[in-house]
Amino acid sequence: MKIALIGYGKMGKTIEQIAVDRGHEIVSIIDINNTDDFRSEAFKSADVAIEFTVPSTAFGNYMSCFEAGIPVVSGTTGWLEHLEEVKHMCRHEGKTFFYASNFSIGANIFFTLNKMLAKIMNKFPSYDVSITETHHIHKLDAPSGTAITLAEGVIEELDRKKNWALEHAESKDDLLIHAVREGEIPGIHEVVYESTVDEISIKHNAKSRTGLALGAIVAAEFTAGKKGFLTMEDLFKF
């Protein structure tokens, strides 16, 4: 499979190494200094583009890929105000886009456990719930996309929570998310249910970027040749 990489930071370099090890070819690498390469023949030859950049550039990158007719796999978070527009283009214009807030297989198992636990805890209103996410100091968006996915899973199953709030809850209906930025931590997410007598928590700790990079490549392998808006649920059929 021919892959174009968009974003060549630590994640992009990790994706490159794993992709080559799996027998794929990197035909184009686009970073902040060579965005004209979106129009290159090398980029247009890709079967799929894998995009890990920053919130401010992500949507423009998707549009450049769509213009070139290249399917996109993206793990960039913080751009979701444009999500419905991307979905519309996939449904009505034949574009292909695979999005995940977290490509780690373990994290996606964690998402499923989170919803199962929330469904159980819906019967026990004495427990309040909160989420804490911890990432490296270079992460620009807060809360993380993974934390938002976890919060949405809780809200879907827990009647007493209606919205999520970052750092400051305005009412009991808000699910509080704490965002911590320190060191070079790849990502830790913890969901905590607390009552006056005890505490229940589940946690996912990413040890490195390798799991995210591998998941993104597996998603790219799945996406190549498909049409529409795709997610990890499509990949794993949870």
Structural description of this entry:
By secondary structure, this protein is an alpha/beta fold. The protein has two domains: 2-99 and 210-236, NAD(P)-binding Rossmann-like Domain (Rossmann fold, 3-Layer(aba) Sandwich); 105-206, Dihydrodipicolinate Reductase, domain 2, CATH 3.30.360.10. It has eight helices and eleven strands. The protein has a six-stranded parallel β-sheet, sandwiched between helices. It has a five-stranded mixed β-sheet with strand order 7-8-6-9-10, with helices on one face. Helix 1 packs across helix 7. It is elongated. The two termini are 26 Å apart.
Structural class: alpha/beta
Mean pLDDT: 95
- Please identify the oligomeric state: single chain
Task: List the total number of helices.
Answer: 8
